[in-house]
């Protein structure tokens, strides 16, 4: 009976979505048949096509970066897909219907890039509370996150040419954050932390998270390929003549954290914890986002070295203290990578702007920007976290960090 | 003794191929040393270079999408490589020697793209009968499939400028199938089903197909990355100014099936069967192939939502009935994704062409095209299936869905 | 106490690197804030951006190609990261400070490409001695390899326009090796073999290297994707109008070795050894490097067919004899793929140059080039191998091919 009710509810919801969309189909889209015409440079369009694919690739890899708890692997994959789908489609809808004019004007490569960047942000954020919600709630979390991301985007940069951002209204400058240290990483970490704080799942501390050789080998694969693809992320929206510079400093920063995270892990814990190293080795690319175009390759190497140290130290020393203090487990240690290295990148930009006299950038704007992103993200994260907590219903202990309730499994019976 | 004979036969076959090829080497190719000159736009050439790589990437991922039976993982990988190699090289040879003039004219990026599209089609098709043949027969299946694909290509679109297709002769129009719903997906599903019908391996129904956490994690990886790379497939042969539109609608359709396949799986079976979901979440991109340039983003979302529903329902309800009716197991459920969603895409195009008055396309042509692809593929599949059945020799039960007979394994002995 | 000392040493080393780099940061880089300007074609710059990413992608996949020993998986991943980081950063530093003028002149897409090609070469090379060193020594091996690679590069081609290579001084020609058969593959194989000879770890022969289904499935994944991405590697530094030709012959050669390696494995050993096949199927792309632009697609297929045969035969017959003769185990069989197929490609080029009258290439130069790369690489490999042996300290049996000493593991305790 219960299953029957669910079936009816789900199909009704599906039909509602289908009918609403079908109206849009019949009204708004017929102009599409006339074909989309690129307004600018075909070469650049093609290049952005490739970057779109690479950033979606990264989004999926984030799932495998978080897939180390053997009894919760498939659950992570599905939660990533659902939260990404929810945020992506709502972000695009808001951009078109609230800020766009016609389909041809609203939809272009940059919109698609911002959509997947919004989606990857929520995918990073759910790392703070994976395994603490029911599966359908990750879809809802994605949907609710899209407006949060738009607020942060508007705060830092404005939306398009017509909607000036808050920072620009106050200081006369937009924030400088070419590679997303603030917009993506800080927003993800503090939104996720906000949700975790609202959930306050004390049980999470007691649940063992056993791994196996291969569950962690998937993490190595994901981390190493994320490192490789990262330049396409930090240069996603750059003009063509700055793309090379962005790639160069991104890789140098990444080399830095590969080296320094290993030194710190080995020096302090004697053996490397792969679930620290595979994350902390990405701290350089996270931190380089804000100062991306302000510094050269060797400075990028130094920033990467320092970011790797800070992130590894956060995993080892800050993580247990912080999670205890707030009473909420940051499951994947998102804050130790994206939060801490994001802050570090933001601060480097605040220092570098006056130091090198960067044109079109303002140090104070960036500082206020970082604080603002922190505040907006954590506050709205807490609000949405309470919504998720209230709608979660019963959540027995054995569902924590386990996808047994979500999937049909067909393992060979023990002989 | 027996092994000695096999060695001699194999080396003789190799030498024959080598000598034949060496004649070509000495005669036809010396002009190649003068170097290949691009006839058109360097930027577009480079873009097609990237797409070639991405589609080969997808081909390999299809192997991992089918790698969930733990005792048949490596076998799937090798069967994919051999069938792809056989079909690719034969397709290129036919195009050059039957339809080409000189090497410089025959060989270009579009030929390479069509070659890998032919190869990926047979790789999808073998999913219907994986584990039911001897390893060398997948190589033969690839070789025999290449002319089948060329017939379907000629039927729908003609071959080059000089060889008008059958549909065009009769109706004055080529089929409209920019993203391959008919050419690739329907052809693969019905060719594969045809082979399976000829084999009629009733034993296949009784063989258990046990999975493990990680054999299915590979499937998640493959499915998620196939989803990501799909736009490069549907836009492979499009002119530059339509590439963005193709990518946009492909991703929107993909978002649709990610959402709706999950709703259907959860609603009907209470828990998600990952071996249904990871396939059905790709139904949107399959279905969007035919109407690719006819519809806008929100219509694409709706098409994806519906395709995900149809595909998931096919796995749950149609699959057991159909396979029982034809007495042949579709091992990987190819028909539920590529067959059913391919048909759906083809029918959407048939409706959209008159609805929106699409230039250069004809509704009836597309309808006859879909029926023709179905008929040609299944008929030639049955013929080739009998060839494979007759040449297979003894095939003991324990070889079914197992690669123990194919590989040397070096696992640690149980202690 | 001991750990405390190590911590201090490590942090001191880190601070030293950081301070040195910071000086560079403050002095050399401030000009960077003026932004990098591309000197040429934006389209080509963007294309090289994509190729940079693809070659880094390949580098990481080489790790997974070597990840089949179940108790040494994570160790391979970390050793790859550390050796790549060490060689990449030292290569870039030497190029800028010894051969460059200003940052703007030194740093461009081609420098980044050569850097990652240097890094991938050492990553291949360590396959000869993985599991025989302490973890930090792979970082040192990377650092020490960078000058070796520069010597080989200078010997074959010279460094930039101002530093004429040795071969050019003597013969008036540079070597012809567009796709790196000599520069990358032979250099990697013989440098690695040189290190292995210096180490002479007889214990390595007795250590069992057990695999599991999935440790080898990762190898299949890596091999298949390396095969796919290979064209970006062989065409990395080609002018735009030769890129298509390079891709075409690379794929045809790859098809050849996919087919012939399987025939040889099956014919000789009855069953396929996946740890031979997944390597030997890459022999075609290795061998095609030197004659890349000299031959056409069908000749490439023949070269691939022969390369696959030679490489598979080397694994089966040459490997046990050679490793016994030199008293050192080539752990991953690097020589059977990169050494043997590299030699074969070099010899094909030596024959093809006079046969087809290739402009700007000289047969004798290429022959001397191949012999020179062999001699330089193995000699410097032996030297560096002794450095590594002397600094290794105690290395107990149980650390051989095991990463238990390197990593914190959190597997579920047996119940």
UniProtKB/TrEMBL annotation, chains A, B, C:
Q: Keyword annotations for this protein?
A: Membrane, Transmembrane, Transmembrane helix
The name this protein goes by in its record: Ammonium transporter
What's a single GO CC term here?
Answer: plasma membrane
What GO molecular function terms would the record report? Answer: ammonium channel activity
Gene3D superfamilies for the chain: Ammonium transporter AmtB like domains
UniProt organism field: Candidatus Methanoplasma termitum
InterPro entries with a match to the protein in the record = Ammonium/urea_transptr, NH4_transpt_AmtB-like_dom
Give yes or no: UniProt keyword Transmembrane: yes
Q: Does the keyword rRNA-binding apply?
A: no
Q: Which PANTHER family match?
A: AMMONIUM TRANSPORTER, RH50, ISOFORM D
The processes (GO biological process) annotated in the record are: ammonium homeostasis
Residue ranges of domain Ammonium transporter AmtB-like in the record:
51-393
Q: What is its main location?
A: membrane
Segments crossing the lipid bilayer: 50-69, 76-99, 111-131, 138-159, 179-199, 211-230, 242-264, 276-294, 300-319, 340-358, 364-388
One matching Pfam family, short form?
A: Ammonium_transp
How does this protein sit in the membrane?
Multi-pass membrane protein
Q: According to its UniProt record, where is this protein located?
A: Membrane
